[in-house]
Amino acid sequence: MMAKLFRAVIMGPPGSGKGTISERIAQSFGLKHLSSGDFLRENIAANTEAGVLAKTYIERGLMVPDHVMTRLLLPRLEEMTRHSWLMDGFPCTLAQAKALNSTCDLDLVISLNIPYETLKDRLSDRWIHLASGRVYNMGFNPPRVQGRDDLSGEPLIQHDNDQPEALVSRLRHYKDVAKPVIDLYKSKGILHTFSGTETDRIWPYINSLLSTKIPSRPETDTQHIPLP
Ligand code: G5P
Ligand code: MG
């Protein structure tokens, strides 16, 4: 028998560690990791209509409009009705949260509360492998060979929107739009906030929280279940 499905969201400003922590959760608990940023980058790479539109915002360090995000992500989530998942980076506005609410019930929301100075330091040191979305940090999580992806050996790049000018406005804007979303999930009693400057110190708390919430060993949930 399939275990109960589990749906979680991880929220936090750019650079707060959503991607890093999501990878650990996916590995330890077998939730499928869905990332709004990775999904946008896939659409940009594939030159879809939404991708072309999204690119004009991301390049300027702006958030992609709600209607574009919901049009892209909700159908994707609807395909996942038989899977447990962890959504990283969506919703991050109240309109997105309401749209998500109309398609599914969330079990848990993780909110990362990381000081501004820490975010600035991390993002200016962040490198990614575009094709896979693998993320490195020259101090915290360096690649084995400088400037190269560990698996493919391909060159790493820095996002334009990790550059300092774009960063300040991203961080400020994020705070404003996320506040009502955080309040909403708090009022529903599903919000868990974690504060700190180091992912490695936050992780044990998230790990133990999830151990109490996720009902069974993940393997059965995460393997691809063929549709009838
Ligand atoms: P993304 O790609 O979702 P952001 O801006 O939300 O981008 P980002 O940059 O991916 O978030 P993160 O996932 O929260 O950050 O953090 P991360 O990548 O794990 O960690 C950041 C860096 O710090 C990494 O280098 C990591 O190795 C390092 N690090 C982690 N922990 C530690 C630590 O403890 N110590 C140290 N020293 N380093 C550490 O979205 C991209 C764009 O798409 C649009 C927006 O334009 C966004 O800017 N977008 C949306 N627009 C509207 N609505 C939405 N819902 C959208 N979602 C995406
Ligand atoms: Mg990320």
UniProtKB/TrEMBL annotation:
<feature type="region of interest" description="NMPbind">
    <location>
        <begin position="35"/>
        <end position="64"/>
    </location>
</feature>
<dbReference type="InterPro" id="IPR028586">
    <property type="entry name" value="AK3/Ak4_mitochondrial"/>
</dbReference>
<comment type="function">
    <text>Broad-specificity mitochondrial nucleoside phosphate kinase involved in cellular nucleotide homeostasis by catalyzing nucleoside-phosphate interconversions. Similar to other adenylate kinases, preferentially catalyzes the phosphorylation of the nucleoside monophosphate AMP with ATP as phosphate donor to produce ADP. Phosphorylates only AMP when using GTP as phosphate donor. In vitro, can also catalyze the phosphorylation of CMP, dAMP and dCMP and use GTP as an alternate phosphate donor.</text>
</comment>
<comment type="similarity">
    <text>Belongs to the adenylate kinase family. AK3 subfamily.</text>
</comment>
<feature type="binding site">
    <location>
        <position position="170"/>
    </location>
    <ligand>
        <name>AMP</name>
    </ligand>
</feature>
<dbReference type="Pfam" id="PF05191">
    <property type="entry name" value="ADK_lid"/>
</dbReference>
<dbReference type="GO" id="GO:0036431">
    <property type="term" value="F:dCMP kinase activity"/>
</dbReference>
<dbReference type="GO" id="GO:0005525">
    <property type="term" value="F:GTP binding"/>
</dbReference>
<keyword id="KW-0496">Mitochondrion</keyword>
<feature type="binding site">
    <location>
        <begin position="15"/>
        <end position="20"/>
    </location>
    <ligand>
        <name>a ribonucleoside 5'-triphosphate</name>
    </ligand>
</feature>
<dbReference type="InterPro" id="IPR036193">
    <property type="entry name" value="ADK_active_lid_dom_sf"/>
</dbReference>
<dbReference type="InterPro" id="IPR006259">
    <property type="entry name" value="Adenyl_kin_sub"/>
</dbReference>
<dbReference type="GO" id="GO:0005759">
    <property type="term" value="C:mitochondrial matrix"/>
</dbReference>
<keyword id="KW-0418">Kinase</keyword>
<dbReference type="GO" id="GO:0036430">
    <property type="term" value="F:CMP kinase activity"/>
</dbReference>
<feature type="binding site">
    <location>
        <begin position="135"/>
        <end position="136"/>
    </location>
    <ligand>
        <name>a ribonucleoside 5'-triphosphate</name>
    </ligand>
</feature>
<dbReference type="InterPro" id="IPR028585">
    <property type="entry name" value="AK4_mitochondrial"/>
</dbReference>
<dbReference type="GO" id="GO:0046039">
    <property type="term" value="P:GTP metabolic process"/>
</dbReference>
<dbReference type="GO" id="GO:0004017">
    <property type="term" value="F:AMP kinase activity"/>
</dbReference>
<dbReference type="InterPro" id="IPR027417">
    <property type="entry name" value="P-loop_NTPase"/>
</dbReference>
<comment type="function">
    <text>Involved in maintaining the homeostasis of cellular nucleotides by catalyzing the interconversion of nucleoside phosphates. Efficiently phosphorylates AMP and dAMP using ATP as phosphate donor, but phosphorylates only AMP when using GTP as phosphate donor. Also displays broad nucleoside diphosphate kinase activity.</text>
</comment>
<feature type="domain" description="Adenylate kinase active site lid">
    <location>
        <begin position="126"/>
        <end position="158"/>
    </location>
</feature>
<dbReference type="GO" id="GO:0047506">
    <property type="term" value="F:dAMP kinase activity"/>
</dbReference>
<keyword id="KW-0547">Nucleotide-binding</keyword>
<feature type="binding site">
    <location>
        <position position="36"/>
    </location>
    <ligand>
        <name>AMP</name>
    </ligand>
</feature>
<dbReference type="InterPro" id="IPR000850">
    <property type="entry name" value="Adenylat/UMP-CMP_kin"/>
</dbReference>
<keyword id="KW-0067">ATP-binding</keyword>
<keyword id="KW-0808">Transferase</keyword>
<dbReference type="GO" id="GO:0005524">
    <property type="term" value="F:ATP binding"/>
</dbReference>
<dbReference type="InterPro" id="IPR007862">
    <property type="entry name" value="Adenylate_kinase_lid-dom"/>
</dbReference>
<protein>
    <recommendedName>
        <fullName>Adenylate kinase 4, mitochondrial</fullName>
        <ecNumber>2.7.4.10</ecNumber>
        <ecNumber>2.7.4.6</ecNumber>
    </recommendedName>
</protein>
<feature type="binding site">
    <location>
        <position position="126"/>
    </location>
    <ligand>
        <name>a ribonucleoside 5'-triphosphate</name>
    </ligand>
</feature>
<dbReference type="GO" id="GO:0046034">
    <property type="term" value="P:ATP metabolic process"/>
</dbReference>
<keyword id="KW-0342">GTP-binding</keyword>
<feature type="binding site">
    <location>
        <position position="96"/>
    </location>
    <ligand>
        <name>AMP</name>
    </ligand>
</feature>
<dbReference type="GO" id="GO:0046033">
    <property type="term" value="P:AMP metabolic process"/>
</dbReference>
<feature type="region of interest" description="LID">
    <location>
        <begin position="125"/>
        <end position="162"/>
    </location>
</feature>
<dbReference type="GO" id="GO:0004550">
    <property type="term" value="F:nucleoside diphosphate kinase activity"/>
</dbReference>
<keyword id="KW-0007">Acetylation</keyword>
<dbReference type="GO" id="GO:0006172">
    <property type="term" value="P:ADP biosynthetic process"/>
</dbReference>
<comment type="subunit">
    <text>Monomer.</text>
</comment>
<feature type="binding site">
    <location>
        <position position="199"/>
    </location>
    <ligand>
        <name>a ribonucleoside 5'-triphosphate</name>
    </ligand>
</feature>
